[in-house]
Amino acid sequence: MLMPEMETERLIIRSTREADGPDCLSLWLDEEVGRYLADPPREKASEKYLNFAVGIENSTSWYPMVMIHKESGEFLGTCSVVPREDGACWDFGYCIRQKYWRQGYGTETLRRLIRQGVENGVRSFTADVAVENAGSNTLLQKLGFRIWKSGSTFQKSGTDIIYPEYTYRLDLPQTNIL
């Protein structure tokens, strides 16, 4: 599904296009950046996975997006929204190039996605995060998300690696992060 193009102070967030496939894969399959993703390591990636972007503009179950740096035009990362609970809740995913870590881009992106959700009547937001992923845990807590569920796990595709995970949830309007 396509999401309207969004802007923040430093970013353009737009729907993923087929041409974005190589940039997305270079990010997700990077050993360090993709460490806590369910995505496979590069050597285990299937043909179907490597061609995930073919026809992506016609996806009907989620909103895949890319983040572009306004000033440089550089691909900065990916984010996505998966509507849940008949659209009343949005589940987030996000991944940022390592050179942009700890510079507020995750915060900027999620704040803009939350604002977009609120403008569309969404009042709850969730995100699943590996317990070990200190950066994402800190980001979500900073934005007012709280651990909603714990005790579940996910497996990194193509490996024996299993990560314990938290599911964070933010219910509005109890917070004013926008």
UniProtKB/TrEMBL annotation:
Pfam families for the chain: Acetyltransf_3
Domain N-acetyltransferase: 11-173
Gene Ontology MF terms in the entry: acyltransferase activity, transferring groups other than amino-acyl groups
InterPro entries linked: Acyl_CoA_acyltransferase, GNAT_dom, N-acetyltransferase
PANTHER family tied to this protein: GNAT FAMILY, PUTATIVE (AFU_ORTHOLOGUE AFUA_3G00765)-RELATED-RELATED (PTHR43792), N-ACETYLTRANSFERASE DOMAIN-CONTAINING PROTEIN (PTHR43792:SF1)
Name of the featured protein: GNAT family N-acetyltransferase
Organism in which the protein naturally occurs: Candidatus Fusicatenibacter merdavium
